[in-house]
Amino acid sequence: MKFAIFGDIHANLEALNAVLEDANENDCSHFVCIGDIVGYNANPKECLAAVKGLDCPVVKGNHDEMVASDIELVGLNPLAEQSMTWTRENLTQEDKTYLINLKLVRQVRDFTIVHATLDSPEGWGYVTSKFHALESFGYQYTPVCFIGHTHVPAFYIKTSSVEELGGRVLDIENGKKYLINVGSVGQPRDGDPRASYCIYDLGGQRILNRRVEYDIKSAQRKIIDAGLSDKLADRLSHGK
Ligand code: ZN
User: Fold this and answer.
1) pLDDT one-digit tens code per residue, 194-238
2) CA 160 to centroid of ligand 1, rounded, Å
3) pLDDT tens-place string over residues 116-163
4) What is the pLDDT of residue 19?
5) Which of 50, 156, 184, 221 could form a disulfide with 8 if both were Cys (CB 3.0 to 4.6 A apart)?
């Protein structure tokens, strides 16, 4: 059984469709969403409909929560604030109710999913080092946990200490714990503009990080046509 595990879609429909196609071509029969379906890019409604259509486990991201609440937008950078205001105007109350009711943490089969960290799911901290990973591992009761939020794919492994592993393939071994950042579908920030997600092969006990090319130009055109900042369009070309 293969799971496609993806998140930080951020309203990028071209990237989401490319990832789902790649997952199907790689025989994924199950899907899991790590949150941040909306924000930044121009197709929040369409991406939300696509994720709902998969009828799969989903956890809440910080953008999902903020878009669905009435809280005042203070302390955000101008780009995030502009897209947040636009996204609030372009979702229905039904969409927002769905997003606000998503859980922060879920267990699926023998693994856990959370958008940010397990030590403080609602604090929206970032796991950007093995020290942050260690804090999250303290609250991880399954061998494998998948996260997102940084938009940078990463593999952390815990034995007697925590290490970050390079590469795109990870074999799961008994007695160890794994914290996996699946990267971002719709706004990668590791310098590689291709969409990022992971395939978890439960039978083979193997996790793959996949990078998928998509129609960036089309996604950019929609951002400009929606009146959103050209900086949001531009960053997609650079994976930043
Ligand atoms: Zn995000």
Assistant:
1) 999 999 999 999 999 999 999 999 999 999 999 999 999 999 999
2) 31
3) 999 999 999 999 999 999 999 999 999 999 999 999 999 999 999 999
4) 98
5) 184
Between the CA of 121 and the centroid of ligand 1 the distance, in Å, is 14
The per-residue pLDDT for range 20-72, each reduced to its tens digit, is 999 999 999 999 999 999 999 999 999 999 999 999 999 999 999 999 998 88
E-state strands within the chain: 2-6, 30-33, 105-108, 111-114, 144-147, 154-158, 162-165, 169-171, 177-181, 195-201, 206-212
Residue-range definition of the domain harbouring residue 15:
2-238
User: How many angstroms is it from 174 CA to the middle of ligand 1?
Assistant: 31
Number of domains present in the structure of the chain = 1
Give residue 73 CA to ligand 1 midpoint distance, Å.
16
Contact 116, 124 (CB under 8 A): yes
Q: What is the CATH classification number for the domain harbouring 24?
A: 3.60.21.10
CB atoms within 10 A of CB 48: 23
At residue 109, the 3 state secondary structure works out as: coil
Rounded to the nearest whole angstrom, what is the distance from the C-alpha of residue 28 to the centroid of ligand 1?
23
Give the integer Cα–Cα distance in Å for 90 and 145.
32
Please give the distance, rounded to the nearest whole angstrom, from the Cα atom of residue 175 to the centre of ligand 1.
31
From ligand 1's centre to the CA of 150, what distance in Å? 7
Rounded to the nearest angstrom, the distance between the alpha carbon of 234 and the centre of ligand 1 is: 17
Amino acid letter, residue 177:
K
